Amino acid sequence: MSRTSAPGIRLESVRRKSGGRIHLTPRVPKSGPVTTLCGQILDSSTYVEVEEAADCANCIRRSRDASRISSAFFEQEEGSELLRLSLEQARFRKPAPRDTPASAKPSARPVVVPPAPAVPDQVGELVTLGFKAAGNGVWRSPGGVVVRMAGKGKEKFAELVFDGAVVATRLDDGMRLRAGDVEVTNTAGDVQVRIKRS
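Above: the chain sequence. Below: its structure as tokens.
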């Protein structure tokens, strides 16, 4: 008797000619030994195909395990039959619903990443040429000088951090501060922070 296992594959039943439990197998061969799901190998002269339901507890338990059934098919060189059945089942499965709206159409165009926003030449008192943005109102020079801008729009010079020599020079109408590759000038109340001119 054929029995439908968990993955929907039909198994066949055999019993020893001397009586006993009824076992399951992927296919009863026309001749030769048969291997049951519980792992017994029955010689061709010792078993008979039966139409009764299996009563071997191990065969019944293993008939619910897709990996055991797959192994049994391949051991009996019935792998092509298993593949055919799998493909047949796949044809009838509905594809998983997509999360995209029905109106959305797939695009064959490559995804274009927008360029990073352009840095203006000047942000308030800071001439940005040569600096790299390092945070909200924080800029770093190639020489490692950190400049922090403050105020509305982060446009006013607030702080300079540098691990090295700092030189301050008095000018006629203000002061110039040099730290690494950064120069801060204050002339007549007008402050400018920039990479030092070579």
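Residues 3-92 form one domain.
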